Amino acid sequence: QVHLVESGGGLTQAGGSLRLSCAASGLTYSNYFMGWFRQAPGKEREFVATISWSGVRTHYADSVKGRFVISKDNAKSMTHLHMNNLKAEDTAVYFCAAADHWTIAVLAPTASNEYPYWGQGTQVTVSS
Known about the structure:
- The protein is mostly beta strands.
- It has strands at residues 3-7, 10-13, 18-25, 32-39, 46-51, 58-60, 68-73, 78-83, 92-100, 117-118, 122-127.
- The strands form two sheets. Strands 2, 4, 5, 6, 9, 10 and 11 form a seven-stranded mixed sheet that branches. A four-stranded antiparallel sheet has the order 1-3-8-7, with no helix packed on it.
- The protein starts with a strand and ends with a strand.
C-alpha cells in the first residue's frame, strides 16, 4: 500500500522560506514522478511543481517559478519543496502526489488526475 506523508508546513511571514518534505513508502520510488499541488480555501487544487522519476527534469507553475525548487532523493524515498520569497497568495494546503512513470505520456504531468497517489496535505500560511 502506497503512503505519502507531508511535513514541514507552518506559519511564516511574507518573504520567508519553508521546506516541505514528502516521505513515500509502499512503492518503487525511483520509478515515480513526484508532484506538489496546493489548494487554497474556496479554490480548486492547482499544480505547483513536478519532478521526473530520475530527478533530472522539473517543471513549475508560472506563479512559483524562480521561487520554489523541487528535489527528489531516490535513496531516501523523499521529495522536497523548497519555497523561498513566500507571498500571502502562497497560503494553502500543500499536497504531495506520485505517479508511476509508465503511466505518464508527457514530459511533465501537471494535471491532478495523472497522479493516483496522494498525501494528506500540510498547511502553509504566509502572513503579509
